[in-house]
Design goal:
By secondary structure, this protein is an alpha/beta fold. The protein has helices at about 25-35, 50-60, 85-90, 100-115, 125-130, 145-150, 155-175, 190-205, 225-235, 255-260, 270-285, 305-320, 345-360, 365-380; strands at about 40-45, 65-70, 90-95, 120-125, 135-140, 180-185, 210, 330-335, 340.
Length: about 400
Amino acid sequence: MSAQSFVHLHCHSHYSLLDGASTIDRLVDRAVELGMNSLAITDHGNLHGALEFYQTAKAAKLNPIIGYEAYIAPGSRFQKDAGNQKDASYHLTLLARDRTGFNNLLQLATKAYLEGFYFKPRIDRDLLEQYGEGIIVLSGCLSSEFSRALIGSSREQRESLAQARDVAGWFQKRFGDRYFIEIQDNGLDVQRQVTDVALELSRELGIPPVATCDCHYVNREDAEAQDILLCVNTGRFRSDASRMRMDSSEFYLKSPTEMHAAFTDLDRDFVAAAVNRSQEIANSVSIELDLGKRHFPGFDVPGGLSAADELRRLCLEGLRERYRNVPKRWTEETADGGERVLHPQVMDRLERELGVINTLGFASYFLIVWDFVRYAREVDIPAAARGSGVGALVA
């Protein structure tokens, strides 16, 4: 490992809507230009850019580290009585270490929207207990529960330390060597104040620190564009002195050299270890996603039939219903008591379509859409389907 190693483990793209000013291709290109071999994406509350980032990073021969900056509820995700957005959630940096971790991030991000949404999509500690395998946790930025506990007056410091110690202790117990104290230096005095106390707890509890940059844009000169995005986000004018702002132009994709030069008040050997640790964490990450095949959900068919058999059965029922009132009946009885199809061209078309659908593995897909439409009609919800498949006789 180089003496000047560093990997961005806390990095926002434009999928951090109206907060990140970096497109994924620009982030990846700049990381390659800076000689990095890995890069993480940690957008606010979502994994919307995960696959685009994975493919773009792989194409550039970067190791993609998929994560997100989660919103975590102070208590239960089901408790929704906070008076404002700030009190409703903290920030927490989560990174997938392997495929299991990636699958668990998907579960967390989904349940955050479906179960915990309150101002923001939120998870809680119960979900982290359930879906924590394969996930690396960094304590977070200034908006994390750990850091907020350390932003207090000296009169409150003893109580604040105890609270931060409890937070770090819980994550250390749950995630072990996959939990790290996150330290940042984007030129803000409050970051330096938090870092000083955070490092005390890091030494006391034996939790290693890791340096991150909280990147929101690619280059320093992009700070103004990101500031304008924040104004659009919050509905405020740039001239408003009380509005939300970053108060620094150092939230860009810094080079390893710049990161090793940061944290000027700390011992240089200690800084080197914290910055290099980002590379060590990156080296522990390996996520291989199979993007070459479709991953449709399965359709549970009663009676042990396959999806293809069930689709054919429903199609035959549908054809009989469709042809019920036409002049020429659908079938007629044969002399031996059997049944003969009176519309062979229709059956030929049906069998041809079913053959294509089954060859491509779309039988479950058609059944799922059929189930949506069936239910909608049963409860008098207007329903219609769109797309090329609608022109099929099967549909």
